[in-house]
Write a structure and sequence with these properties.
heterodimer, A: alpha+beta, Elongation Factor Tu (Ef-tu), domain 3, 9 helices, globular, B: three-stranded antiparallel sheet
């Protein structure tokens, strides 16, 4: 798979036309930034609205009987109680309690709609096909996925699709945009209000242009997407969560509803339930460097006494925070907000502090 | 006063035995928005090709390599508070070091402006 030529989304030509700097990401040629720059695109999204092409993510339709109950055998969230028109963040766990991928599952009435990470499509589709007995797993290849994120997103999308205005966070609907049937979900990966819109590929450019025609909407690339999600304290699969991290360690137990925590019945339940009861040895936390040097993935975290207590899993410059921000795993006894730590950057100890996530207040339409 | 350029995209303006060193506009444009610059301290000596600092942009960290042997006699203090100046004026007020040259003959290995323009294409 990895040797294939990079794939292009239906919006590729538009990205190039808009001056997007194209890079290879998980086997896809995607814009990392536009002429506005990562910093400007980041602020655009926090203050107005940014538009992201996320068509590289895997869109999947599940059809069949008892999908919700079957999903509960491979993911630790509650789906049998997920109402029609609602979306839920979840993850597939492995037998050791690690996270195989994180994803969004929506109850679309006569089917379920699932969106998985671009880098994990090749794993997740066969995984679902194997374990969801009697369920048809249909990977969608003919629809773009466009995210409009920011405090003005409701106006941008609502102008083209009035029904979007009435949606709340984590709701999903099918609605007409410019004569085309689209799926809109009110969620995202920036910490801001916004939508992800699944659009038939032959209309994707036209609708994207119409969204961008709004004076407060501008295209944003993968660079801003990463700094936005980092400030919002949202995990990136492969960095902050992976097969070796559990939901308890990753502070994602909010995505496991009470019944599922108590009953188990998902892969790795033994370990996850043990950690729920007794705590995990390490915890994913926010880490705020005191100085200006960004601390990136792989930087060692030490106690003030010089003992290794963890590692940065995501880090960089937070444009809204106006300084470096990071996330990482730290030994639970040292993972309390306010705890002073040192980050070993290029061989030198730089002071930092454990902080509560997120770095910026999440701004969802509840 | 003559300005030389390195293949590592630095400029160095020589006045007698001292020189001012920085990164070129081309380098700054390639790096993207700069958010941090780590500098050596006054009195530090270095050899050609040695790492003499790090520039971090929103995207990544990039090392600065010495274009010749020398000693730091001043590190631009303005860059700590305002690293973004490296994007605005990398060949002007956002110089990185003033240095003392240890081996002026090494200047011959560097390019002039026309050479550098041809180098970056």
């Amino acid at each position: 798979m990895m040797t294939d030529a990079p794939k292009r989304t239906p919006l590729y030509d538009l990205h190039v036309e808009l001056g997007g700097k194209m890079v290879d990401f998980a086997g896809w040629e995607m814009p990392v930034q536009y002429p506005m720059g990562i910093m400007g695109e980041h602020k655009q999204c926090r203050e107005k609205a940014g538009l992201f092409d996320v068509s590289h993510m895997g869109q999947v339709i599940l059809k069949g009987d008892d999908i919700a109950a079957k999903l509960e055998t491979i993911a630790p969230s509650a789906f049998t109680t997920l109402k029609e028109g609602k979306a839920r963040y979840t993850f597939f766990t492995n037998d050791a309690g690690g996270i195989m991928d994180d994803l969004i599952v929506s109850n679309a009435g006569d089917h379920f709609f699932v969106v998985v990470n671009a880098s994990m499509r090749h794993q997740d589709i066969p995984h679902m096909a194997k374990h969801l007995d009697g369920v048809e797993v249909i990977e969608i290849f003919d629809r773009a996925l466009v995210a409009v994120q920011g405090p003005v997103a409701e106006a941008v999308v609502g102008d083209l699709c009035p029904a979007a205005r009435d949606m709340k966070f984590m709701e999903t609907i099918v609605a007409d945009i410019m004569g085309v049937e689209c799926r809109l979900s009110r969620l995202g990966y920036t910490g801001e209000d916004g939508y992800e819109i699944s659009i038939p590929e032959d209309k994707a450019v036209e609708i994207t242009r119409a969204l961008l025609a709004h004076e407060d909407c501008a295209p944003a690339g993968l660079g801003a997407r990463d700094s936005l999600r980092l400030e919002a304290g949202l995990c990136l699969y492969g960095n902050d969560i992976d097969n070796d991290t559990t939901p308890v360690e990753a502070a994602l137990t909010w995505a496991m509803q009470k019944r599922r925590r108590e009953e188990g019945g998902f892969p790795g339940a033994a370990r996850i339930q043990k950690e729920l009861a007794e705590g995990a040895a390490r915890k994913l936390v926010g880490i705020k460097p005191t100085g200006r040097a960004p601390a990136r993935q792989g930087v060692e975290v030490q106690s003030p006494e010089g003992e290794t207590i963890g590692m940065i899993t995501s880090g960089g410059f937070g444009p809204t925070v106006g300084g470096p921000v990071a996330m990482g795993y730290v030994a639970t006894e040292q993972a309390t907000p306010g705890q002073a730590v040192n980050l070993i950057i290029r061989g030198k100890a730089q002071p930092a502090e454990i902080v509560a996530l997120p770095f910026v207040t999440q701004n969802y339409k509840r | 006063m003559t300005t030389y350029y390195s293949e590592e995209h630095e400029w160095i303006t020589v006045e007698g035995e001292t020189a001012t060193l920085g990164i070129t506009q081309h380098a700054a444009d390639q790096l993207g928005e700069i958010v941090f610059c780590e500098q050596k301290e006054v009195g530090d000596t270095f050899d050609k090709a040695e790492e003499i600092g790090v520039i971090e942009s929103v995207k990544a960290a990039s090392e600065i390599y010495a274009p010749l042997d020398g000693e730091v006699i001043e590190a631009n203090p303005a860059l700590e508070e305002n690293p973004g100046a490296l994007n605005e004026s990398p060949e002007g007020e956002a110089w990185i070091y003033k240095i003392k040259l240890t081996d002026a003959a090494q200047l011959e290995d560097l390019m002039d402006l026309d050479g550098y323009k041809a180098f970056i294409g």
